[in-house]
């Protein structure tokens, strides 16, 4: 109600009372009046106070009960809460505020209302009030004073938010907590302003996408502190990557851990101080963040350890979630992985391990991961390394003769050198774009052992793509050149098959076959195709270019066949139409992108006559892809006789050459190792027997003169020569080249 209206109401009432009771002198009425507020302080940022006005003990014949309240400058009325007087000011009204009852309550009158005050109050403020009372026995309005309310400004203490910066995160990182603080200790609220993240309370969860995340922290004030200024933090979410942990055990040894991208299984490299044994632990992180040990390899005996780590064996244990723990582990590992901290305990040793996750954006983040490498041009040997994001590296080298390892640093260029306490130096180079690693072990003797490999987080593409065999063929007096090959996988593969004779003369072969013919048979012995002269076929010419094979003259009498063959074993027979001579049987993977296909050429076995001069049986193959390939190479003669083949070579020998015509491996009798350079590790008879079983090759008899070897080869072209161990010997022999599955 406006002030003028309220004044008119009181004036009218007073005149009426004066006329009716002019000759009387009643007693002045009294009442108990209070005005209270919910706080005696005002906040620096402005706010709202809640008042309660109460009147009691007034006469029973009270006919008018009205309040007049004067606010401090700049203050204004908010609203009446609940029931109140019949006449009241409008919201926003400034002083004076006036209330009146039309129907006065019988016993007491009380109501609650709010008042808004401005920000920036720096001195004491006051609110005063009066109650105006009129009764039936007292016609004049009586004004009753109410004790004034004083309000002092609340302390205006600074309240800055301390919001630590947030490091870059991987898209596959787990949830994490924010920990901003302020002097007031009041609750801080967080908001994701933008980016691939969600927030609940102070817990941030990444969505799995990459990008830039902006998070804002806010905090309101109270009677002692002003509201804090908002603070924002920005961090980047980078593509998902392996999680790497480095730490130190309670007995002072270093360890390193890798968990593949998106997996719950991990690998730990460590060392037991009391025994000086290195070990490799495979573990699984459960849903409750506890750690379950799955497999433990103690590397205490070099010879036995090498059989476990001969070729990329760690890869088999990675990325297999929900596995069954192995029974009877040598040590009991228990612990948790929570909040980026790995905590483990080795019960039997009383040793604890504590490691922290490496940040996503460290200087060596682009090369971080677990790398598994094989010793080149040897039958066994593995160098495994875990590279962190902050320039840390942990490596373990295992051969039949030595186990060495330790921690060190790796440069942003990818180079590292680790000097071990066994006088072995591990030098390496990681290439970020290809995720490959190469290097050498410098052994105590000074010999160097080269190794090469790949990140276990990268799909391997190593395979054999081009297979060939050269031999002297005379079907009138001996056997055709028979080449067997196997196509793996479940879908057909395009292959180019060639029998080259006359074109060999262009490469200096003086006894080249003039007119070869090729016939292909499937596993049942059914003829698939028979081709004599290739005749300049356009499709064959295109496939020749695609595979990188040497070209054939359009009018040559060489034979060639392009086909899509279903998975399975095949034999390719090369015979001579007319004069005998030297010919090559070639099998090429003619797919547009061989490395992208699972189906592949997995082995070759070629049988032919070994004669003097140019009659050496030669097999060729190409290893392609991003990592070394471990192969089994066999040269059999006596074993063929056991299978019913007549006229076999009684004592074959093998030699393997690289593209530079360097001898990289060789063998005469399969049970006797034949090293071709100092420090070369050759396969034992037991390892060869295991490999035979693995690839499905027929067994070699104990004491036989057949030749066989295992060698790990880097990508490139290779040839295998099968010749007689004794000069002048001739006979039928078989070259076999198998890729050993890993």
From TrEMBL:
Top-rank lineage group of the source organism: Bacteria
Gene source species: Actomonas aquatica
Keywords attached to this entry: Signal
Position of the signal peptide: 1-22
Name the record gives this protein: DUF4397 domain-containing protein
